[in-house]
Specification:
Blueprint lengths: L1 E5 L2 E7 L4 H15 L6 H19 L4 E9 L2 E8 L31 H8 E8 L5 E7 L5
Helix pairs in contact: 1-2, 2-3
Length: 146
């Protein structure tokens, strides 16, 4: 993993692996504390974890993802890059006791709501294509900076 300090924030390059989302959560939570924004720690960690998990899934193991946390225009922005050109698609969240499948063999198949979580915790999220491949998935957190 490499860290890049920038005037606009901090970025990390890391291997797309099962631990990347957790690592991104810890790193971004630390940055929120360093910036004196403890009220954003939980939301920032959850948002970047969901974006990183999606990036790992889109990239495949052993590729690289990039994570960026920055402050600009009165808001905190979190962004995750992956090398896949396909844009993420939010699933409609509909959960009931009848549709939730808690059988052991299907327990991990009840997810896919990451972008819905991101959407509920942010002002907005968007996708920016990059050349020659890949995309940044970005989110502006709720909780304006004053």
């Amino acid at each position: 993993m490499s860290v890049i300090q920038q005037k606009s924030g901090v970025s990390w390059r890391m291997l797309a692996s099962p631990v990347a989302a957790g690592r991104a959560r810890v790193l971004v939570a630390g940055v929120m504390r360093e910036w004196g924004l403890p009220f954003l720690v939980a939301d920032a960690a959850l948002v970047v974890g969901e974006l990183a998990a999606n990036a790992v899934g889109a990239s495949g193991l052993r590729d690289v993802i990039k994570v960026h946390a920055g402050i600009g225009a009165g808001e905190v922005r979190l962004s995750v890059w992956d090398g896949c050109d396909a844009w993420p698609v939010a699933r409609r969240v509909e959960v009931s006791l009848e549709t939730l499948d808690l059988r052991e063999e299907n327990f991990d198949d009840n997810g896919g709501w990451g972008l819905s979580i991101v959407e509920s915790l942010t002002r907005r999220y968007w996708v920016e294509s990059t050349w020659p491949r890949g995309k940044w998935v970005c989110a502006a957190l709720n909780g304006a900076l004053e």
